[in-house]
Design goal:
With 219 residues, this protein is an alpha+beta fold. It has helices spanning 4-8, 11-27, 34-50, 55-67, 79-94, 98-109, 121-131, 149-156, 184-204; strands at 157-165, 170-177, 208-213, 216-217.
């Protein structure tokens, strides 16, 4: 049985993530480093554990979370689908059972808001984990005069926290924004599609999705 630790410590996977992050740096995107991969993995697994899902399902969510941005080493465009195919090759060579590999592939292939949606619990957890990683440290540059709107919104995010209430069946993303840099309306305008994707993902898990910004309910 393939474990998350085997995936995290795999030199090939780490190399692809690092190259993808370097590619996105050249293109001016926020960081998609090993740190983001690790955070997505931990959050995805914790979501399912807190909602009472089986431990193995949570581990598959961690594996998908760690591997979800592999495709960026090829191209940002369609990276979810190329990443899923890369994962299929890697997991097959490592000896993962096809049924489990299919779950990981589906999660990776559906994590991008342009083409994907939550199709099962693992993909839902990955979507929520990935889209909730909004923080200032992911912005590479510090020259605000050169920020586009995405940089400005990310830089304004002083912190974010995803909370799971298993009793109330609510998943809440709490974001603290520096409103001198970005308004709540700016955030919602830029990330509306992602937040709606999170709402559908939460529904797939039998939960309601909430978004609060600076303590005020937005969604």
């Amino acid at each position: 049985m393939i474990t998350f630790e085997q995936i995290r410590d795999n030199a090939e996977i780490r190399a692809y993530i690092e190259k993808g992050n370097a590619n996105l740096g050249v293109l001016g995107f926020t960081e998609h480093s090993l740190g983001h991969a690790g955070k997505a993995a931990a959050t995805a697994g914790n979501i399912l554990l807190q909602l009472g899902h089986p431990a193995r399902e949570a581990e598959l969510a961690r594996i998908a979370g760690y591997m979800h941005d592999l495709g960026n080493c090829i191209n940002r465009a369609d990276h979810a689908h190329t990443g899923a195919l890369m994962a299929m090759s890697i997991l097959s060579r490592l000896g993962m059972e096809p049924a489990e590999a299919a779950v990981v592939m589906a999660a990776i292939g559906n994590h991008d808001e342009k083409t994907g949606t939550a199709v099962d619990a693992v993909s839902a957890a990955l979507i929520l984990a990935d889209k909730s990683d909004v923080r200032r440290s992911r912005v590479r540059g510090r020259d605000r005069s050169r920020f586009d709107i995405h940089d400005r919104v990310n830089f304004a995010a002083k912190g974010s926290q995803l909370e799971v209430d298993a009793v109330a069946r609510e998943i809440t993303l709490n974001i603290e924004l520096d409103d001198e840099i970005c308004s709540v309306l700016d955030y919602f305008e830029i990330f509306l599609e992602r937040m709606l994707m999170c709402r559908r993902a939460a529904e797939r898990l039998g939960c309601t999705f909430r978004l609060t910004a600076n303590g005020s309910k937005v969604l």
